[in-house]
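Fill in residues.
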């Protein structure tokens, strides 16, 4: 958990919390979609609606730039790794 003592860091702190929430939901979506019984549930469908918009946008950007389709896992990897890196940068800005 990250705490800020400066009032001006509050927007960055809120952005960190939003990013952590998205990363948690995206990881939960990837785990729940691998469970055979839960993959067709309403919960998994709602997680898919929340978490898949960024990987879908990255897939479209990759397809437009390369004029070919890319692997489905590549978009997820780009989104998750860039999310973790962005979170670390924001934490360093708030703490440092």
């Amino acid at each position: 958990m990250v705490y800020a003592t400066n009032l001006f860091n509050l927007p960055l702190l809120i952005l960190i919390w939003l990013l952590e929430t998205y990363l948690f939901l995206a990881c939960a979506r990837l785990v729940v979609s691998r469970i055979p019984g839960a993959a067709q549930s309403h919960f998994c469908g709602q997680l898919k609606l929340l978490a898949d918009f960024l990987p879908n946008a990255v897939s479209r950007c990759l397809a437009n730039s390369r004029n070919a389709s890319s692997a489905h896992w590549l978009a997820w990897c780009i989104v998750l790794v860039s999310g973790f890196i962005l979170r670390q940068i924001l934490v360093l800005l708030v703490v440092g």
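DSSP finds four helices and no strands in the chain.
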